[in-house]
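#onboarding

Welcome to the new folks! Below is a worked example of what a typical request in this channel looks like: someone posts a single protein sequence, and someone else replies with the predicted structure as tokens. Don't worry about understanding the tokens yet, we'll cover that in week two.

Example request:
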Amino acid sequence: MNEPSNLNTQMSIDLKKYRIRVHKESLHLIGDPEYIQFLVNIDSRQVAIRAVEKEQVNLQTHRVDQTRMESDYSLEIYSRPFIERLCKEFNCLGEGNSYRLTGTAIQSERIAVFSLDSLQKIDI
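Example response:
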């Protein structure tokens, strides 16, 4: 049976706590990496999560703690500079709000791509 190579996935951005929440399912879809890297394409208004096998300080990788992933539903990364930069570049994020982004995991490339056009405000 053939597995689909592109699958829908989600992540969320919390501007109040400067937190990015990567859903556990998203990490599974890109191969349960040891590290991830966030990529931003300003022109196409996209944010991506790329699987990385080893830490690369100059590429600002984030470690995925697999022991925490067994019980939690998501990986939380706190990065005020990254969130502030997103807000500056994409003037569509309201201060103090939380948003959900829908994207596509491309398993063959071990990457999940999220369009900022898919932003949905989360009411808490």
